[in-house]
């Protein structure tokens, strides 16, 4: 396994992983535009795991200074490992490396938002020493603001 910072060439593979995580096909043109913008921004870092020349894991995070901490915080935005490659320690290693990257960037802590329906993912984060101290609230600004929590909608 090779763990490295993603490149422009990884966009399609990361797109596939994130569509799999979300259980829906995202618009590739919009995804690519955002990915290309983030990859050149020092406040973002996308870590990938590569095996035999194929990207099998992606962890995308953002670094920001937050007033309510008066410190730098890292936030995991997306984290996906190919279904066939789960339970092999890849996620654990990627999470560990992301924590070190965040520390090296001067961050006080690392955070992640995770859909309430992703129970297995919650267990993973708790095994890795994370705590559920926050609530996250959402409101749709386009379309119907339905109170339904669904994956892949």
Automatic annotation (TrEMBL):
GO terms for molecular function: acyltransferase activity, transferring groups other than amino-acyl groups. It holds the Pfam family Acetyltransf_1. Residues 1-153 form the N-acetyltransferase domain. Coiled coil: none annotated. This is GNAT family N-acetyltransferase. It comes from the Bacteria. The lineage of its organism: Bacteria, Bacillati, Bacillota, Clostridia, Eubacteriales. Transmembrane segments: none annotated.
